[in-house]
Design a protein that fits this description.
The complex is a heterodimer of chains A (about 150) and B (about 600). Chain A is α+β, with helices and mostly antiparallel strands. Chain A has two domains: about 55 residues, no CATH class; about 80 residues, 3-Layer(aba) Sandwich (Glutaredoxin). Chain A is built from seven helices and four strands; from the N terminus they run H-H-H-H-E-H-H-E-E-E-H. In chain A, helix 2 packs antiparallel against helix 3. Chain A starts with a helix and ends with a helix. By secondary structure, chain B is of the alpha/beta class. Chain B has five domains: about 100 residues, Glutaredoxin, CATH 3.40.30; about 210 residues, Rossmann fold; about 80 residues, Ubiquitin-like (UB roll); about 90 residues, Up-down Bundle (de novo design (two linked rop proteins)), CATH 1.20.1440; about 55 residues, Alpha-Beta Plaits (2-Layer Sandwich). In chain B, a hairpin with a 5-residue loop joins strand 13 and strand 14. The longest helix of chain B has 20 residues. The chains are: A alpha+beta (about 150), B alpha/beta (about 600).
Chain lengths: ~150, ~600
């Protein structure tokens, strides 16, 4: 077990109630949950690996695959949907040449969708590495992406 | 304004404020105030979301009540010179009211706020959510002090008499819920705040937690005292980092001030709250799934032969309420049951917060008395539909709700009326759609959502929604058959009757209401293979209008499929076989030369 993993697990009391928080912190730290990390959690919490695996696959917050350097999140909330969110997501798929949920071969971008970010006035909305880009239009997408290609 | 002793500047923060760039304007203004040595005279603070999202970044000045909208950092010099030093308003920063078409100086004259009753949201505009003192000065924790001098029975009685019903959507009487949990046998008892606001297009709970976290907290503490609980939980979406941060800080401050923790305010009552961050599963907003998730299990719902008030979290008596329900409690304790029940209709009391979004001019967070008409919300508060488009439908209740057409706009907004019309109150999302929105696509959108979020435990929901989605997809692709509408209806009834939890049980609602009110649109797709709203890709094609195209070449440059031909300054054309109907040409054309047929 690496120090980082040990550190995060040690923040919590070893109760099943805390396992979701631990996995969330680990996922945030490493961008994904590796097999080793899942095994660490399993042995530290004394919970079968199968149970930890089922948690890691049930909840959308977790990824079992490493993600790219930049995470492009397209909001698919209803407000964004009626304002053209799906079009934005399709165009991103075309430009990046990957499907939603995938990472570009150069590991620069991971494209994801989210059900709602609660900034509906700005729809259609996309968020890159936590920065909000509101009222996105077809013309803007390439320009926005360019900033992150440097 | 220079004759005013003290000026308070309230900056609208919150997620959409920050996303619109409020922070940089805030910092620039603070800096400019310092440069002009106005720090003694001017008090500037970042509040929660002030509710008028469409105007962000927005700021208000008190006591003058001036409102400035759409600010950028470059505006701050003028604001300080003109407004703070000379006492003049900066005309160009004022908001133009949608009803009067006049520039508005005072917040009180903004039509958007006029029909609202902002009881829960009021403090969102005036307090710094990170300072417990702001909340206390505004009357915070007075209700808790009052409640601690009452008996638990008296508190429950007030809540019962107030007529408060659960704001999470189902509308169960809150007082009755507390009473059952109080009477139930078993220790310990638990209090849970459901902040897993998963409905797409809804952000009311987020804004309350961000802008006034102590109000929610105070409600939970009062309930814990009434029910006899020492441990509470708040289950909040991990997608709301700001809400989590503000609530965590509120917890710390409340502990320091003896409102939370051991021996609250010197009494023998102890209570504490733990934050659980959700894992991004919509189904966890369902109460039994939420409890499973708190216990560290996968969030699958379970059958509810026994109420959670008897056997809930860890099989112990549990009170679970929505964020807005909790925030109502201090108001009711302070002002009394009669005050609360004087607002609203016979069976739906108080106010309700909605996030008014979609194809609407005044996007924002509104608080209205129960019983207000949908028409008033959409036109008098929301300012109608942008771009001279025609209103088509309003969707309430999220994926469990329905789409209501023009002829339902005079319905009063209360639990019963909305349910009768086929929709539901839900937790407060209100999404407006215009003539460009295809109702088959809307039904498909929600079913894609529920299908994706179905936990898979019971067959009707897991398989049924999949089959329904396949039928809807066929219809939207022009492969619909006679009898599909009837089959959808039959499937809907079956899924509603046999699903384990409310996610499945209400999943067909968007389909049923769109069929009920927009059957002709379904029929056009099936019989004529046409999409009247021109949204279904398979049933439309893009065309360049020869007499409008001036050969600006912009579509040519932007087409990712290289499906457009033509030289600069000559009329362009689309090669239909290559076109994927992504719509980029339509979006980028500045001369409206691309049309959808």
């Amino acid at each position: 077990m690496t120090d980082k993993v040990k550190n995060i697990i040690s923040r919590y009391e070893k109760k099943q109630e805390n396992i979701l928080s631990v996995l969330e912190d680990l996922n945030a730290e490493f961008n994904y949950l590796s097999e080793d990390v899942l095994r660490n959690v399993s042995s530290e919490f004394n919970l079968p690996l199968s149970k930890v695996f089922s948690l890691a696959t049930f909840y959308k917050a977790f990824s079992l695959k490493p993600k790219g350097k930049h995470i492009v999140l397209v909001c698919m909330g209803t407000a964004c949907h009626v304002r053209g969110g799906p079009k934005i997501s399709e165009q991103l798929e075309q430009i990046l040449n990957i499907k939603s949920g995938e990472t570009t071969p150069d590991n620069l971008f991971t494209l994801e969708t989210v059900n709602c970010l609660g900034a509906c006035a700005l729809g259609p909305l996309m968020v890159i590495d936590g920065k909000y880009h509101g009222k996105v239009t077809s013309g803007k997408i390439s320009k926005i992406l360019k900033e992150y290609k440097k | 304004m220079n004759n005013v002793d003290k000026i308070d500047i309230y900056f609208s923060g919150g997620t959409c404020g920050f996303a619109s760039g409020a922070e940089s304007v805030f910092l620039a203004l603070k800096d400019e105030i310092k440069k002009n040595n106005l720090e003694q005279k001017v008090n500037i603070l970042m509040t929660g979301c002030q509710g008028f999202c469409a105007l962000e970044p927005l700021v208000t000045f008190y006591p003058q009540k001036i409102l400035y909208a759409h600010l950028v950092p470059e505006d701050v010099k003028e604001i300080v010179q003109e407004t703070l030093l000379k006492g003049k308003t900066v005309e160009r920063l004022l908001y133009t009211d949608f009803l009067t078409k006049q520039k508005v100086i005072s917040v009180d004259d903004v039509s958007y706020y006029k029909k609202q009753v902002r009881n829960l949201l009021k403090n969102n505009s005036f307090i710094d959510p990170l300072k417990i003192d702001d909340y206390i000065v505004s009357g915070g924790y007075k209700a808790l002090k009052k409640a601690l001098k009452m008996t638990p029975e008296e508190i429950i009685d007030i809540i019962k008499k107030s007529g408060l019903r659960g704001r999470g959507g189902a509308g169960f009487p809150t007082g009755k819920k507390w009473e059952s949990a109080k009477k139930a046998e078993g220790e310990p008892k638990y209090i849970i705040c459901n902040a897993d606001e998963g409905d797409p297009g809804a952000f009311m709970d987020m804004s309350l937690l961000e802008g006034n976290p102590h109000s929610v907290l105070e409600g939970m503490i009062i309930s814990a005292y009434a029910v006899g609980s020492n441990q509470g939980y708040i289950y909040v979406r991990n997608e709301y980092p700001l809400a989590i941060k503000h609530f965590s800080i509120a917890l710390e401050q409340a502990r320091k001030n003896s409102f939370l923790g051991k021996n609250i305010l010197g009494t023998d009552f102890s209570f504490d709250i733990k934050i659980i961050r959700g894992g991004g599963a919509f189904v966890c907003g369902e109460s039994s799934a939420l409890r499973a998730s708190i216990e560290g299990k996968i969030g699958e719902p379970s059958v509810k032969y026994i109420h959670a008030t008897d056997k809930g979290l860890y099989d112990k008596p549990t009170v679970l309420n929505n964020v807005k329900t909790w925030a109502n409690i201090p108001l009711i304790i302070n002002n009394g049951a009669k005050w609360f029940s004087s607002i609203g209709t016979e069976n739906s009391k108080g106010t309700m917060i909605f996030s008014l979004v979609g194809k609407i001019n005044n996007t924002g967070l509104i608080e209205v008395p129960m019983g207000i008409k949908l028409r008033e919300i959409i036109y008098d508060i929301g300012g109608g539909i942008p771009g001279n488009k025609k209103f088509k439908a309003v969707q309430t209740g999220g994926p469990s709700g329905g789409c209501l057409p023009e002829r339902c706009l005079d319905l009063p907004v209360d639990y019963e009326s909305l349910t009768k019309a086929g929709s539901m109150m839900g937790s407060g999302g209100m999404i407006v759609m215009d003539e460009d929105n295809c109702m088959v696509q809307v039904a498909k959108y929600f079913l894609t959502f529920t299908q994706d979020e179905s936990c898979g435990k019971c067959t009707p929901c897991r398989e049924g929604t999949k089959i329904m989605l396949d039928i809807l997809t066929d219809i939207s692709c022009g492969k619909g058959k006679e009898g599909d509408i009837e089959l959808l209806e039959e499937m809907s009834n079956l899924i509603e009757d046999t699903s384990l939890c409310a996610l499945g049980g209400s999943a067909p609602n968007p389909v049923l209401t769109t069929i009920r009110y927009f059957r002709d649109e379904y029929e056009s797709h099936i019989k004529e293979k046409k999409c009247p709203a021109r949204e279904c890709k398979a049933l439309i094609r893009y065309k360049i209008l020869e007499d409008v195209c001036n050969g600006c070449h912009l579509c040519f440059k932007n087409c990712p499929q290289k499906a457009i031909t033509g030289e600069p300054k000559k009329v362009h054309d689309i090669i239909q076989d290559k076109c994927t109907k992504c719509g980029i040409c339509f979006d980028v054309c500045k001369f409206d030369a691309v049309s959808v047929v």
